[in-house]
Amino acid sequence: MNDFDDRFLTRNGLAARQLAILLLNHEPETRLPRVRDFATELGCGNGTVQAALQLLEDSGAIETTARGHLGTFLAHSDRSVLWRLSGLGTLLAAMPLPYSRRYEGLATGLRSAFEEAGAPFAITFMRGAGARTAALLEGKVDLVVLSRFAADQLIAEHPVELVADLGPATYVGAHGMLLRHGVDPDTPGLRVAVDHASEDLRMLVERVFAGRKDIQWLEVSYMQLRDLFARGEVDATVWNLDEVQDRMGLGVDVLPLGDEVTRELSLRNSSAAIIGRTDGTKALAAVRDSLDLSLVTRLQNEVLRGERVPSY
After folding, report:
1. How far apart are the first and last CA of the chain?
2. N or C: which end of the chain has fewer CB within 10 A?
């Protein structure tokens, strides 16, 4: 094993590592770029590229076949070996705390999809989109899972890219207004809870109660909502209904959200998006091209229906 590793510390070996990253984006039975094109992209000589290709073949990462004037084709590739040799390492993704079955299903699906794509993958759980965003920008994690709405804002403000959008109802099922039983939502001085750790929910609750100058805003942790409602200290908020079922008690009513704008905003909040830093473009391209999003959503739905035990 040491002898194998030593070969990848030579000039040809370092070129093979760079080449492995490029080959992660090629499917079997597709024609490879010419040697001189690889050489131009890697900034090395043709001979170095040829030696690097041979090294990858000898390691079992790839198998190529020459087809005369048609060029050289990638006959087979082992993505897990390519990824290991590329030096990209384990991808660490930050997700919301898995306190809803939908989040557990999402984590289960992502883990399986990354494993199938041959990319080493690990998950860390962080409460609040702001905390996950900071971890991504500081280089502590490689990917973050947010709502599509929060992701769009992040992309507009920072050097990050969209890796995948998993579609409606993958992040949350629906949102609704939580109202303390017996309270009229038009009551002057309504006490509305907001947790600024969740940018999505802050935007929603402010949109729902827009124009109400009489509102008393209460900064709380949404982990405390059940107790706050039970003690009569909060009158209303907007929250993810996945987390409301069986958790808020009998003293809380759920009302549908209001106008079309709010419903559209809520729909964007329901889609899970995966974001990565722009400076990790090569790794992102490898993930984007190989990730089976249908597998993610299929496993998530199986967890939601109780047909699969969450595994992440």
Report:
1. 30
2. N
Cα separation, 291 vs 286, whole angstroms: 8
DSSP code for 310:
-
Pairing of strands 62-66, 72-77: antiparallel
The yes-or-no verdict on residue 62 having pLDDT over 80 is yes
Strand 91-95 with 121-125, pairing: parallel
DSSP classification of residue 236: E
Label the pairing between strands 72-77 and 216-219: unpaired
Residue 68: Cβ-neighbour burial (10 angstroms; 0-12, 13-18, 19+): exposed
C-alpha span between 238 and 158 (Å, rounded): 28
If DSSP codes are grouped into helix, strand and coil, which group holds residue 207?
A: helix
- Give CA–CA dist 39/41, Å, rounded: 5
State the pairing for strand pair 272-277/143-147. antiparallel
| Measured distance CA(311)–CA(289) in Å, rounded | 24
The rounded radius of gyration (Å) of the Cα atoms in the chain is 24
The whole-model pTM stands at 0.73
Look up residue 104 and give its amino acid. E
Could you give the CA distance from residue 184 to residue 186 in angstroms, rounded to a whole number? Answer: 5
Name the nearest CA neighbour of 85 among 19, 1, 10: 19
Mean pLDDT (whole number) for 21-28: 85
Q: Under a CB-based contact definition with an 8 Å cutoff, are residues 49 and 12 in contact?
A: no
pLDDT band at 265 (very low <50, low <70, confident <90, very high): low
Q: On the CB side of 187, how many CA atoms lie within 13 Å of its CA?
A: 15
Query: Which has the higher per-residue pLDDT, 244 or 88?
Result: 88
The one-letter code for the residue type at 12 is N
Tokens of 49: 């590229």
